[in-house]
Specification:
Elements: H1 2-5, H2 11-23, H3 27-32, H4 42-56, H5 61-65, E1 67-70, E2 73-76, H6 86-102, E3 112-116, H7 122-130, E4 135-140, H8 143-155, E5 162-166, H9 171-175, E6 178-180, E7 186-188, E8 200-201, E9 212-213, E10 219-222, H10 237-240, H11 256-265, E11 274-278, H12 284-294, E12 299-304, E13 310-316
Parallel strand pairs: 3-4, 3-10, 4-5, 10-11
Antiparallel strand pairs: 1-2, 6-7, 8-9, 11-13, 12-13
Helix pairs in contact: 2-4, 6-7, 11-12
């Protein structure tokens, strides 16, 4: 009732999530023990009251409990990163399916994947765990977001298989400026590139490691900021007041990140075989047009989300 009175739209489900987290119970445990009295623990009561107050004030329940499930895995989230959405799982599925058609299981080669704007690492970590022979790099402009992604990679057992690069969109891969080693430590590679055109990865502070190159990008996936700047004040308070604006603000019409990446695609050592981008409502056709202007594709198609919106644009060469 407290959350409902405060205007929380999903008051019941959110209260259930908070209670499960406070008591350390699963949903089935909660249903089984529903009539049990509240534990006689004042500290537990204080935590519960604090959680309710934070959620009633508008803080997303995922930030309150510090986690969000994505593709069946639990990711740690905080206000430094966007909360992963269920519709983004559809983008991962589309990328995996398109990749499997070009690099089927058992083939002698495996693709190099780049997740731009990785945030919590949900996309990059999921792809690395679902396709363990694929080479995955995660990039983000925000160093605190990269720290969150590295934490999730470690917690889920993918840290030894991911590279992390700090930089804006595709700039690090065009200029070979900001790179990371395969153990997940961000390092700087000053303007260097190997013979493949990929940025050099310097191994610093890790005995016995050698420099490695981030390979040319064969699959590019991104869920970039796509909210028009003028629309930010009208967003739901949970999004507007708590989620990072760096991960939301897509410029005047919301398409700035797509324009920049479409231009940068031509400056890479080779255009990726697959590009998959999440987009805002009503943006799919324009984003597809940007991709068509950047390269020749055999197929450009849309992936529709659970609300019937063209939510993802997938281009394949």
């Amino acid at each position: 009732m407290r959350l409902k009175t405060a205007g929380v739209e999903e008051a019941g489900p959110d209260a259930e999530l908070l209670l499960m987290h406070v008591l350390g119970k699963s949903k089935s445990d909660l249903l089984r023990d529903w009539r049990e009295p509240w534990p006689q623990d004042p500290e537990l009561r204080a935590v519960w009251e604090g959680y309710l107050a934070r959620r009633a004030a508008g803080e997303p329940v995922q930030y309150v409990i510090g986690e969000q499930h994505f593709y069946g895995r639990r990711f740690t989230v905080n206000p430094d990163v966007l909360i992963p959405r269920p519709e983004t799982e559809l983008l991962v599925e589309a990328i995996l399916a398109a990749g499997d058609r070009i690099w089927p299981a058992g083939s002698q080669t495996a693709p190099s994947v780049l997740d731009v704007g990785t945030g919590s690492g949900a996309i990059a970590v999921t792809i690395a765990l679902e396709r363990r022979d694929w080479q995955v790099t995660a990039s983000d402009l925000s160093p605190v977001a990269l720290a969150a992604a590295r934490h999730n990679a470690g917690a889920l057992g993918a840290d030894k298989r991911l590279r992390f690069v700090q930089g804006n969109l595709l700039e690090p891969f065009v200029k070979a400026a900001d790179c990371a080693d395969h153990a997940g430590t961000i390092v700087k590679a000053s303007g260097c590139a190997d013979h493949t055109g990929g940025p050099i990865v310097e191994a610093t502070g890790h005995a016995g490691m050698v420099d490695q190159a981030v390979p040319p990008i064969e699959i590019l996936v991104s869920n970039p900021p796509y909210i028009p700047s003028g629309d930010l004040p009208g967003l739901q308070r949970e999004v507007r007041d708590y989620e990072p604006h760096l991960a939301l603000d897509g410029g005047g019409d919301g398409l700035m990140p797509y324009r920049r990446m479409a231009e940068q695609l031509r400056l890479l050592s080779a255009v990726p075989r697959i590009v998959g981008w999440e987009v805002g409502a009503g943006q799919a056709e324009e984003v597809a047009g940007l991709l068509r202007s950047a390269a020749d594709w055999q197929d450009i198609r849309f992936v529709t989300d659970y609300a019937g919106i063209r939510r993802h644009v997938l281009a394949v060469r």
